[in-house]
Amino acid sequence: LARLAAAPKDEGRLEPFLLALYNTTCSRCGETVSADYFVWDRETDAPVLRSYSCPHCSHTMEEPTEAEDRSLAVGFRRRELQHSLALEQLAPHGDPDREHAEAALSAYPDRAVYAIVTLLNKLEQLEPADREAAEALALSAMDQTNALWGHPEGRPRPLQLTASPQFREFNLWRALERAVGDWAMEGEAVPVEPWTAGQFPAAGRVSLFDGPIRELASGIPPGRIEQVVAVLPRPNQAYW
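User: That's the sequence. What structure does it adopt?
Assistant: Structure tokens below.
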């Protein structure tokens, strides 16, 4: 996270650049502050609520948006270049999965697409050891910043790629910060290795088998393997 924060961006650093994408004005002291999230109404296609904690006067509030908030959000609809770049990275022209990539991108607010493309460009410039950790943070952040999560909370994990009637547009940089706690686990990593027929993993290891579980089961004596974790047979579109 520190490497990403210090990455150069437009004569500055990446962290303040991304935070500024979500700027709003504190209703108490009038200072500019980066919102934690905006709540959008799908029918009006605009943010109707904002949530922030002002570092200048400690004012913490979820309250209606102002005209400047709505104008800033709408301005990202004109950034078609970022949407095209994201689509080409996911599935270039001719890729059979392009329609699924387009459906996935449609589940993100335009500001989130712009912020994610900016982030991905910086990931490519990191050293390999830092990049792997940064990609993990980005994965969690992308899951938080789509429009599938309803407001108020309580809706179960989404099953379709359809924006909720009211959804939270989370601040991408704040999502990266929250993701640190999910990934910064103590202890040594669990070794992972490909499955080899006739050989069983040693204790404390994970083997990956690429194929249907019926083929795996046919070659394992009873009692040798305690647990198998598999992909759901028919996962829904939002899962993928």
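DSSP finds nine helices and ten strands in the chain.
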